Amino acid sequence: MQWTATTRSPRRFRICLLLAVLLVTGCGDGAGGGNSNSDPADESSRADAPAVATSALVVETAAVPGGELTVLWRFAMADDWHLYWSGRNDSGYAPSVTLATAPGWETGPLRWPLPRRLVQAGDILDHVYEGELILIQTLAVPADLEVGSQVTLAADLAWLACRQECVPGKATVTLTLPVAGGTQRTSAGEAALRQAESLLPMAVPAGGLAFRWEGTTLNLNVPGARTLEFYPAWECGDLVDLLHDGESATDRLALRFRTTAGQAGPARGVLRVDSGGAAPAAWYLEISPTSIPDSGG
After folding, report:
1. DSSP label at 42?
2. Which of 71, 160, 248, 275 is least enclosed by beta carbons within 10 angstroms?
3. What does the pLDDT read at residue 194?
4. What value, to the nearest 5°, has the Cα angle with vertex 272 and ends 97 and 115?
């Protein structure tokens, strides 16, 4: 199994996806047409080379009634372009994948890897991806599908790619899968999934984090860490100064919150922990809010 896709001009909205072993292609609207079998290497040398090329990989070889399918959505960015994380950013919006499913299907949430912090002119703070972004999604297959038939799903992909300028992109993809009584994962599919999962944030390990509220300030301590960065989710409480409070060159981080409805917090998001190893750790952080006494003033 192999990632394959044609490229898309950021201004023409033309894309075709070939989904590993299983699949057919779907094309978004665009001007100028073009040969969907053209060599991506030839297109990349043109002045209108795409900011983002997309492809998808279905890890399983068939849809099993009552089972699950795992899909990896891949966004490959050209040099100097970036896409946005699904949490808080000062600008831009995150890529989306919208599946139009028949009754009985259930779509799990997109699982996002660790982004990186990007500060631009004017103190604009974003959390972004460069090079490649792979999102993992699990689909629950209806139990009443007929073995030996096929099932077709349509997926709408949308994104905003930015460099010095920002360019929106979109594509509609049709997925046609065989329905079988059993399925398996190929070695290539397993390897791609393991690699994608290795980049996901995980739960805070036992004893890895100490925290304490002091008024409206949340103090975090990760023994042995060299640097810490906090990326807030949309559900996080109102932070006073994420630009400066959100990173630390020590094992301690102090996050100041504004008081809302008599409380500060909660702290929800991802904590990036660099302890000097080969790769930083990423932990889901969810700390309950603290009550702030009424000053009576």
Report:
1. H
2. 275
3. 97
4. 30
Alpha helices in the chain (DSSP H): 40-44, 187-197, 242-245
Q: What digits encode the pLDDT tens for the residues 164-199? A: 899 999 988 777 889 999 999 988 889 999 999 999
Is the Cα torsion angle 180, 186, 189, 193 positive or negative in sign?
A: positive
Asked whether the beta carbons of 54 and 15 are under 8 A apart, the reply is yes
CB 183 within 8 A of CB 63: yes
Its sign, for the CA torsion 105, 83, 187, 22, is positive
Which tens digits make up the pLDDT trace of 257-293?
999 999 999 999 999 999 998 889 999 999 999 999 8
- 131 in the Ramachandran plot: left (φ > 0), alpha (ψ -120 to 50) or beta? left
Distance CA 263, CA 177 (A): 50
Cα–Cα distance, 229 to 78 (Å, whole number): 26
Per domain, the residue ranges of the chain are 4-197, 210-291
Distances (CA, A) of 33 to 48, 123, 174: 14, 40, 19
- Cα pseudo-dihedral 63, 65, 70, 76, rounded to 10: 40
**Gap between the Cα atoms of 252 and 227, Å rounded:** 8
* Residue 244 to residue 248: CA distance in whole angstroms: 8
Q: Which of 89, 141, 105 lies closest to 269, judged by CA? A: 89
112 token code pair: 């996002």
| Distance from C-alpha of 218 to C-alpha of 216, rounded to nearest angstrom | 7
- Indicate whether this model's pTM tops 0.85: no
What DSSP assignment string belongs to 90-108? SS----EEEEE--TT-EEP
Fold category of 4-197 in CATH: Immunoglobulin-like (2.60.40)
Which backbone phi and psi does 291 adopt, to 5 degrees? -80, 140
Rg (CA), the chain: 22
How many angstroms separate the CA atoms of 234 and 221, rounded?
A: 23
Q: How far apart are CA 127 and CA 134, in angstroms?
A: 15
